[in-house]
Amino acid sequence: MNKLFTLAGISRLAAAAAVAATLSAPVFAQSTTPAEPAPAATTEAPAAPAADTAAPPAAEAAAPAAEAAPEATTNPYGLKAIIDHGDLVAKSTLVLMLIMSAGTWYIFVTKLIEQSKLMSQATFAEKNFWTASSVTEGASRLKENSAFRGVVEDGLRATEHHDGALTDHIDLHEWVTMSLQRSVDAVNARLQGGLSFLASVGSTSPFIGLFGTVWGILNALVAIGLSGQASIDKVAGPVGEALIMTAIGLAVAVPAVLAYNWLTRRNKLVMDRLRNFSADLHALLIAGQKAKTGRSA
After folding, report:
1. What is the SS3 string spanning 75-124?
2. pLDDT of 260 above 90
């Protein structure tokens, strides 16, 4: 009985210990398990502000770069500065050179068109006039506004109306020669019109640009004297205007000189063809008049 009592008591004590261990295990698990992730949370928390603090400097660095781009393209000392802030002398010089340039290009284009028309008229006259049966028929083949037709008509009038009281004292040969020469000179004078303007522009526009240069340098010296310091912002504007005036003067002079030389050469070619036509016409008119005089005798 003592053994049974002892074994029963021991078994009860063991069951009570097992129950106590089972109830106490969750408590120890709850108390020890959350303690371990805590350091991880504290180490990861500062990582978020690092990304936030790095973003604003990048945005601030990009903003000045975007603002610096337009400033690099603006030029406060260019041609626009002369128009906006130049004085009366600078603007007058600029306007004068612009007028000279516009006149140069207008004369060049108009004279080039006029020369092309005369060359085509010369080609047409050489092909159609000399195949006619008479001078009158040849003149009718030419166009109304042709310079070659005007020369032929002047020659016909000279031969047909050489019967006045005063013209009888002049030989027919001399009278026809003078009439044809006047007609040719009239065409030459029309072709030469405007070339003197090109010569004047080519010879004077560099000096006008040089005047603008001298005036700009004078303004630079005055700005330095008034400010009392030779800083680049006081000198760059007037000197820039001076250099622009020099460049504009050369840009006006060079096309004028080239246009004058080229148009003069083309005028010579056209007038040579007209003079040759006039000389052949003179011989034809004199020979025809002599033939009429021989038949009437």
Report:
1. CCCCHHHHHHHCCHHHHHHHHHHHHHHHHHHHHHHHHHHHHHHHHHHHHH
2. yes
